[in-house]
Amino acid sequence: MSVSTLDRPLPRPRPRGKGRRRIARHAKLWLWCYAMLLPVMVIYAYVRIWPIIRSFVLSFYNWRLIARVRPFVGLANYEHMLGDQNFQIAIWNTTVYSISIVLISTLIALPLAVLLARRSRMSAVYQTIYFLPVITPLVPMSIAWKWIYDYNYGILNYVLSLVGIRPIAWLTDAHIALWALIIMGVWKVLGYNMVIFLVGIRNIPATYLEAASLDGAGEMRKFWHVTLPLLRPIILFVLVTATINAYNVFTQVYVMTLGSQEAPGQAVRVLVYDIYQNGFEFFRMGYASAEAVTLTFIVLGFTLIQFRAFREQETT
Amino acid sequence: MRPGLQHRRLRRRLGALLIHAILGLGAVFMLLPMLWMLATSFKPPPEIAVWPPHLLPRAATLDNYRGLFSAIPFARFFGNSVFISLVSTASVVITSMIAGAIFAKYRFPGRSVLFMLVLATAIVPFEAYMIPLYIELVRMHWINTYQAIILPTLVMSFGIFLLRQHVASAIPDELLEAARVDGASEWWTFRRVLVPLSGSAISAVGIFAFIQAWAAFIWPLLVANTNHLFNLEVGLTAFQFRFSTDYGKLMAGSTLSTLPMLIVFLLLRRRIIENMALTGLKG
Asked: Is A258 inside any structural domain?
């Protein structure tokens, strides 16, 4: 880059051209903007906007990949969904999974963040360690967790045996498998939540806490009456983002509970897995789209809660 | 020294010790899966299926790693992952820089509508619109091709958002005006002023794009149907279904597919954590 352009003293703003010339200049600039954006927006239209619209459209059709006739069925897919036991199990499991992960990870991450809020060398080390699971890819980590949960030789059952607990079939019992997934989910998201809380706590003006100290408040009271109320918007942000992410769970379910010799015939059914199975194993793509639209609305709902809460925060 | 003060000091020290004990225990829990994976990958078969299990290998061996490359086309999977992630990263960086700069520094009809559109698509989870995308690629006869695997990862709304924020806040309008007064073309200004001044934000976007593309799973699972197109994630899963009990090789493969991310993370730790925390994006 040419440094001279940057170093030169900035000229005064030019008086704006009038009339036609100004319009011409603007039109040229606009054209430049559209030309630059065109490739980007074309990609967006093709891989995002159009598919999103089409998933709504598809959900009103009996659309099978292999069928020649794909009739319009109105709301039939949605009606079918209401009576579909697999779908209900999936919604239930996904909801239990999401709520558990969000609550547990927040309840652990918040005190951790308070402990780590004082800047120190050890604080940075702990941050790094707790954050590691966030960036590690899910497939290898799911395989590693599967090995940890192994009934015969897994390290978890070994640790439990030390305190006299009999081996648990972590991944073969459908009810326990959901909890095995939740434990792993907490492990994965904990560091992320903690770092967000940490940033929030460090942004609290020191004067507030000092004032509370002068009034004789102990650490606990300062946490309850100063830190916690000021962190409210950030806690809400973490709750909502974590919930949305948890609703999309798929990879762990696929890798840990499906297909291998020891696993049950059926995976822990979660929403995306149900979409995957209906769409790509049974090729009922219209029906799977109706489920996908449901997922979209669930996520949208949580996002709206967040927007509204932020707006309230701004106006008050 | 007064006894009361000494007592208080002792209590404080005990408190600090307790805090470290809690944090340390948590750290072990966080690291355990990775350590267990790493340790198992160096163990010979008789040490893997033993009770009680021991963490460290007694007769460490590289057999699992060697066996991995002969049991499955692991090198191919790795190469595919590198290739897919690099193309995706390059595309995300270029498209984000262009769109971010235009949205930040130019006023034109439809600007906010287009920007809202970019952001709005980020709210809808990919899993919710992968079916129509799949159908479209079937129509194009693109299933089981590299372009199909890469296609959805070409753009990243978060990247556009981050670069727009950066260009809008860090690069003053006067700089662009000055270049224009000097008779510079818009393209020249973009290449010689906006891009060079966005280095840090570009690298942040690049890192996120790479991490995301590297971990992509459900889409490659759908559109890559033959071995030679598998990325590491899909390849490892297929391998796992076939040899579900060969944990030595499975852990070796998992270690190798985690390693690049660990290296990236440890090198760029501060920047990754800060950026993720500030913008609220998940890997």
From this structure: yes
| Cβ contact B182–A5 (<8 Å) | yes
Residue B98 has pLDDT above 70, yes or no: yes
Confidence of residue A1 (pLDDT cuts 50, 70, 90): very low
Show residues of chain B in contact with A6, CB under 8 Å.
175, 193
Q: What is the complex's ipTM, to 2 decimals?
A: 0.91
Q: Which domain holds residue B9?
A: 3-61
pLDDT of residue A3: 41
* Residue A158 sits at the chain B interface (C-beta within 8 Å): yes
pTM of the model: 0.89
Q: Which residue has the higher pLDDT, B54 or A297?
A: A297
Q: How many CB pairs under 8 A join A and B?
A: 292
Per-residue CA distances from A193 to A111, A235, A297, B161, B281 (Å): 11, 9, 24, 21, 11
Q: Do A144 and B127 touch (CB under 8 A)?
A: no
Q: How buried is residue B9: exposed, middle or buried, by Cβ count under 10 Å (0-12/13-18/19+)?
A: exposed
Query: Nearest C-alpha of chain B: how many angstroms from A155?
Result: 7
**Residue-by-residue DSSP string for B140-160:** TT-TTSHHHHHGGGS--HHHH
A144 and B37 within 8 Å at the Cβ level: the answer is: yes
- In the three-class reduction of DSSP (H, G, I as helix; E, B as strand; rest coil), residue B13 is classed as helix
Range of the domain at A41: 18-58
Asked if the Cβ–Cβ distance from A36 to B98 is below 8 Å, we say yes
Dump pLDDT digits (tens) for B114-128: 999 999 998 899 999
Which range among A86-100, A195-209, B34-48 shows the weakest confidence by mean pLDDT?
Answer: A195-209
**Residues A26, A111: one domain?**
no
CB pair distance less than 8 Å for B217 and A128: no
Do residues B153 and B249 both lie within one domain? yes
Judge whether B105 lies within some domain.
yes
Is residue A130 included in any domain, yes or no? yes
pLDDT number for residue A237: 85
Q: Is pLDDT above 70 for A7? A: no
Chain A residues whose CB is inside 8 A of the B98 CB are 36-37, 39-40
Alpha helices per DSSP H over B216-268: 218-223, 232-242, 247-267
